[in-house]
Amino acid sequence: MTPHNEAELGDIAKTVLMPGDPLRAKYIAENFLENAKLVNSVRNMLTYTGTYKGKEFTIFPSGMGMPSMGIYCYELFKFYNVENIIRIGTCGAYTEELNLLDTILVDNSFTPGNFSLVLTGDDEHISASSTLINRIILETAKLHNIEIVQGNTLCSEVFDYYCEFDKFFSLIPRDLNIIAPEMEAYALFSTAQLFNKNASCLLSVVDSHYKEQSVTSEQREKSLNDMIVIALDSGLKL
């Protein structure tokens, strides 16, 4: 056990899905896993382990932001022998081509922050996802006829409506072709690389700086469920 996780060794599966919201973790466990068992509730970070199509998975919430993600994925990799983590979350859109509820598979995550400098002593700002998991996710999505948009994302420490957007966006290197912002993937990818583990990130677009769109609650649920199924079916191959 750790100060943040009361699960015992063996309670956590080798492959973990990480939504941000603890209630989303509960939703996934109740609707997609068989024999789901609550294995952690410290700080209400509701964590469940069960089986999907015969394989064991854990659903562990990350909370919001790189510090929270960094703590949980570090402990999962180091103390619980987790091999693979797939983050499933939401994001905005930084290109006009993206529509609400598009599903993004992250290739590289860029941060202007100093997460890696503190974690490893290296002043790095770009971190890549697992090519293995990404290849499997693309193959799985194709089998389900679910369209995936691949691209690079921004991992910010500040939610972007807090600041002057144009000034904020000007700080992002243009050659990276950033298509969307979120707040956790960089910490996950960097920590996975530290331990020579696998990590990937699937995102559903829920807002855009370029389009006024609206979606129904049913559309949001279907988009979320599609992302969950892609992640779980991909995890079967890991």
Task: Write a brief structural summary.
The chain has 238 residues and is an alpha/beta fold. It has helices spanning 22-32, 66-79, 115-120, 131-143, 165-170, 185-194, 217-235, and strands at 15-18, 34-40, 47-52, 55-59, 84-91, 103-110, 126-128, 149-155, 178-182, 198-205.
| Count of discrete structural domains | 1
Question: Which sheet architecture does the biggest sheet show?
Answer: 10 strands, mixed
CATH topology: Rossmann fold
Structural class: alpha/beta
The CATH class is: Alpha Beta
- Give the CA-based shape: globular
Please state roughly what percent of the residues sit in beta strands, choosing from under 5%, 5-15%, 15-25%, 25-35%, 35-45% or over 45%.
Answer: 25-35%
Number of helices: 7
CATH architecture: 3-Layer(aba) Sandwich
Question: CATH superfamily, please?
Answer: Nucleoside phosphorylase domain
On the 0-100 scale, what is the average pLDDT? 93
Low-pLDDT segments: none
Q: What is the H-and-E element order?
A: EHEEEHEEHEHEHEHEH
Secondary structure: number of strands: 10
The share of residues in helices is 25-40%
Give the termini distance in whole angstroms.
25 Å
Overall radius of gyration: 17 Å
Model description:
This protein is α/β, with parallel strands linked by helices and about 240 residues long. The protein has a single domain (about 15-235), classed as Rossmann fold, CATH 3.40.50.1580. About 35% of the residues lie in helices and about 25% in strands. It is built from seven helices and ten strands. The protein has helices spanning about 20-30, 65-80, 115-120, 130-145, 165-170, 185-195, 215-235, and strands at about 15-20, 35-40, 45-50, 55-60, 85-90, 105-110, 125-130, 150-155, 180, 200-205. Strands 1, 2, 3, 4, 5, 6, 7, 8, 9 and 10 form a ten-stranded mixed β-sheet that branches. Strand 8 (about 150-155), helix 5 (about 165-170) and strand 9 (about 180) form a beta-alpha-beta unit. Helix 2 (about 65-80) runs parallel beside helix 6 and helix 4 crosses helix 7. It starts with 14 loop residues before the first strand and ends with a helix. The relative contact order is 0.21.
